[in-house]
Amino acid sequence: MLAFGVGAFPLAGSCATGESGVADLFHRYVEASASHDLATLEALTSDDIVWHLGPLTFEGKAKALGPNAYDAGARTELTYSNVQVEGNVVTFEMLETSEIIRAVGMTELRHYPRFEFRDGLVVRKGPSTRKPPAAHSIPELNRRMAPLRKWIRETHPDALAKLVDPNEGFIFSEESGALMLRLTREWVASGSPGRLSK
Question: Domain locations in the chain?
């Protein structure tokens, strides 16, 4: 999700209640995330959602759906395990990988998110208290992305306007995800200049 700097259940409007209802909603949400079903994600997301993702915060449905759209364009692969449901809160483990992540020398990112549901919708997303190993963390990905970012600036300056807004920062969209994937493939084909070995 931060590669530049993760069924047949009731519909969201049914207001499922109880832990079993929350579990059903959660599994529908993460299945949509893994399959990049943006329409289902939009239907299951509250208008006033707040999502804390690494150093970034996304407020409101439109902005919060941006990283999901980016994942679709970048063909990010997400898997989930160790799901724990307590009331309207779900904590779990998520593994994130992609061609981009592997190109810079990492196998995967590990996340330990916490989701909060209300009235059949996800209203809060953020980290739990558990921290990922440093080698599988967002700061490590950002460190390893530095040579690729430098190469993009030097060889494809025109692409920066499609990837970075001078006021808002990185642009999370399906188009930016697809562009990052294409540029990463070009970087690899050119010999991955500057790629970090450690």
Answer: 12-189
Statement: the pTM of the whole predicted model exceeds 0.85: yes
User: Which residues 6+ apart lie within 8 Å of 55 measured at CB?
Assistant: 138
Q: What is the 3-state secondary structure (H, E, C) of the chain?
A: CCCCCCCCCCCHHHCCCHHHHHHHHHHHHHHHHHHCCHHHHHHCEEEEEEEEECCEEEECHHHHCHHHHHHHHHCCEEEEEEEEEECCEEEEEEEEECHHHHHCCCCCEEECEEEEEECCEEEEEEECCCCCCHHHCHHHHHHHHHHHHHHHHHHCHHHHHHHEECCCEECCCHHHHHHHHHHHHHHHHCCCCCCCCC
What is the pLDDT at residue 13? 32
- Contact indicator for 28, 7 with CB cutoff of 8 Å: yes
pLDDT digits (tens, 9 = 90+) for 58-81: 999 999 999 999 999 999 999 999
- How far apart are alpha carbons 49 and 121 in whole angstroms? 9
Asked whether 92 and 81 are in contact (CB, 8 A), the reply is yes
Q: Is the CATH code 3.10.450.50 the one for domain 12-189?
A: yes
